[in-house]
């Protein structure tokens, strides 16, 4: 097998500096695991792309991604004071929805776990997380109200939420498989007491369950799920849900670990997968060498696992990040009051060393 | 002025027993505040109604409510083991959506505050709530995807979210006024980067803001709002949002106080308003005299304020509940480990005494 081509889209804000650490870790991984051989094509996205091309998702970037085996994505977005500039207007939306559509990214996978060593940083009371919080949210990413008809007619507006059985099967298939390799519990979140699309989700989930009888399946209304994520996060193993509910719940879950800098995510397409940290571009931290690169580093692990099937290399990176955090080496965002913290690059170095 | 007619719909589960305490408190309030004079018409709703009439929202109940000045509502829903019975199928939905439509209940108002005396019960880390958590969520209740067209056609389904300027103005009008009587901050939650209805909400909010310049208005995407409710709940004063986002966010916010038994809510119609605790029917607690009646008692305060304009009587009830909680008299749901707790009726008695 030849080298895998990775499109690297650092984007805005802290994107550049956390990406540097991720690539550092990947380089070391290649030395240790000869099966991991990659080449990089850097491309512009978001505000950085706008400066050069006048659009947030240039054709050039699309072509580079299309010619790659995987996309390593940073983050998008500018400072609060600059939001009125065309550079930032709808930057995130244009880039992300553009990529999703261009590469048929129909399934988003986002873990949310509380690291025992960082449990002080979680916003939740200690006894609520001491039983362990370790879930994966599988979100449908190309359907629902996001991609339905939108219209405005004078004093009224309309957005249409549509789902087909085919669209629903795709994330559920992934979710059932993910549950099998975990604690075998799948919670499908919907609003089946109100929505026809939710009732269709239930029908499809129940049918598919026959093929995966070893998975324990339950259904939960989205309002209740929003409560349980806060009150009883240990309840969840795998959650699967539609696009908008997934947007809300995966962001809610992303704060449980205690920092947005900790969790990676993967968006799975028909050919190419995209890997993206769940935090934002944090423009206020840009250039300060203080941002947490863990999420971006863990994106490389997800990439090795899902895109390149390099399971042991992926596990090695995850174990290294765990070990670094366990040893008390932390960036500012997850340091205890009074605890010393390390820089972005020092954290990356520590992961390389732990590898 | 004659006596005010209150329709009392205790419903299922703990409804009966917490309602009893609310009526006890109202009776004492009438003695102390001669302007508060009420008569009660009891009526069936939910599973209790189904047993007698075969429907969850009987015509008889509708008529009693229609002839009343306010509706005091308990809760609806049966035990997990009985969910397959027709008695419980869609009970909550049928009753609640039925009432909302019948009485044009277009605005839902739900406070979420952490009582300092009960801060140990909040699921959030102490330092996140020590700055005080005291918000009101104003939810549009008769529009959006709830009441749009729902359709299923073989292997695909559709739900339509619609809003008109008129529908949007109603909750916003209330929200601006509420903000004025509070900390003067209004956050409109939407998904304006994706939805046309959200963009219409923004347009209307910006127009109305000109009439309420003393209110500080901001906009927040719903995914971000779900994060901030957990990470920085002190940020919020008044939140206003559309029906489905309001369903999710008000339930998420309802767990912040530490028990679902603490917060009341009001649904405002064109003629009649409905008052309802934010917790559910808790069938597992039914008949045990342990449920927290605070939310139901605080519903009577909201009723006195919004339906009957009896502001000092309303404030007296709220102060009494505060005082009881402050004095360490608590039901089981909010007791500290090892702390003695009192029964439902003893809590009601304590509020009566504090009045
Ligand atoms: C930027 C926005 C369109 C996007 C979404 O809502 O999907 C973002 O919130 C996300 O979750 O990746
Ligand atoms: C029962 C259901 C239809 C209802 C809603 O979604 O509005 C409930 O969740 C609520 O919030 O009162």
UniProtKB/TrEMBL annotation, chains A, B:
The lineage of its organism: Eukaryota, Haptista, Haptophyta, Prymnesiophyceae, Prymnesiales. GO terms for cellular component: cytosol. Its EC number is 1.1.1.85. InterPro entries: IsoCit/isopropylmalate_DH_CS (IPR019818), IsoPropMal-DH-like_dom (IPR024084), Isopropylmalate_DH (IPR004429). It comes from the Eukaryota. Homodimer. SUPFAM superfamilies: Isocitrate/Isopropylmalate dehydrogenase-like. The keyword tRNA-binding does not apply. Pathway: Amino-acid biosynthesis; L-leucine biosynthesis; L-leucine from 3-methyl-2-oxobutanoate: step 3/4. Belongs to the isocitrate and isopropylmalate dehydrogenases family. This is 3-isopropylmalate dehydrogenase. PROSITE patterns: IDH_IMDH. GO terms for biological process: L-leucine biosynthetic process.
């Amino acid at each position: 097998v030849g080298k895998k081509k990775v499109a690297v889209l650092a984007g805005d804000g802290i994107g550049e500096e956390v990406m540097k650490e991720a690539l550092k870790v990947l380089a070391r991984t290649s030395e240790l695991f000869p099966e991991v051989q990659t080449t990089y094509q850097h491309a512009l996205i978001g505000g950085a792309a706008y400066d050069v091309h006048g659009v947030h998702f240039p054709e050039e970037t699309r072509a580079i991604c299309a010619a790659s085996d995987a996309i390593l994505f940073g983050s998008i977005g500018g400072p609060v004071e600059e939001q009125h500039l065309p550079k930032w207007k709808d930057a995130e939306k244009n880039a992300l929805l553009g990529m999703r559509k261009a590469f048929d990214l129909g399934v988003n996978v986002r873990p949310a776990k509380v690291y025992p060593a960082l449990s002080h940083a979680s916003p939740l009371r200690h006894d609520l997380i001491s039983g362990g919080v370790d879930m994966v949210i599988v979100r449908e990413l190309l359907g629902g109200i996001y991609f339905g008809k939108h219209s405005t007619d004078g004093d009224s507006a309309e957005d249409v939420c549509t789902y087909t059985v085919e669209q629903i099967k795709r994330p559920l298939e992934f979710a059932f498989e993910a549950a099998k390799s975990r604690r075998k519990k799948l919670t499908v979140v919907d609003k089946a007491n109100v929505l026809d699309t939710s009732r269709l989700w239930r029908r499809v989930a129940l049918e598919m369950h026959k093929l995966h009888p070893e998975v324990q399946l339950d259904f939960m209304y989205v309002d209740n799920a929003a409560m349980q994520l806060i009150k009883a996060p240990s309840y969840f193993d795998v959650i699967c849900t539609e696009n908008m509910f997934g947007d809300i719940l995966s962001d809610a879950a992303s704060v449980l670990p205690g920092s947005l800098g900790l969790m990676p995510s993967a968006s799975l397409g028909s050919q190419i997968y995209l890997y993206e940290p769940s935090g934002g571009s944090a423009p206020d931290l840009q250039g300060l060498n203080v941002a947490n690169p863990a999420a971006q580093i863990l994106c490389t692990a997800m990439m090795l696992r899902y895109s390149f099937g390099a399971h042991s290399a992926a596990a090695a990176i995850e174990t290294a990040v765990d070990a670094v955090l366990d040893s008390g080496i932390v960036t500012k965002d997850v340091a205890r009051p009074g605890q010393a913290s390390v820089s972005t690059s020092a954290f990356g170095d520590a992961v390389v060393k732990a590898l």
